[in-house]
Every structure is written in structure tokens, then in C-alpha cells.
Specification:
Length: about 80
Amino acid sequence: MPLQSVLGNKLARYLMRTIWGEQYTDLGPLRAIRLDKVNRLQMKDTSFGWTVEMQIKATQQKMRTLEIPVPYRCRIGKSKISGAI
């Protein structure tokens, strides 16, 4: 991951732990959530901040969460969004 992604991830996780008392290991983009729960979250962000918003709102509403570790590997090919390799 680019340095700014690594640092941003660490900062967001630190703030969530410090302010809301919830410790996450990552801000990965994959979420599995029931429709009634996601509707209850009333998500607003439509860009890159949605992962943090979802995790904070789930914590505030005391929703049960589960993280499943997935190994990270370097991207094969070029990103369609950022153009990074």
C-alpha cells in the first residue's frame, strides 16, 4: 500500500480506539452487513471515508462486529482508480 494509505489507516484506527474505545486491525473495504443494520447506520459518505464512517457508527450503535484476517499481497496489474501499480 502507498505510505499515505498505511499512515491514514493507522491514524484512523488510533482515533477510533482513543475516542470510541473500539479496536480494529484494518479499514478494509469489504463489509457483510444485513440490510436493516446498514439502513440503521444512515450512511452519508459516498467516497473514500465510508469505511471509517461505517465502523464508527456501528461502534456507536453497539452493533456486533467481527474481523476476519485476510493476508495482504501486492496488486497484480494497475489500479483502475488511482493508476498505481
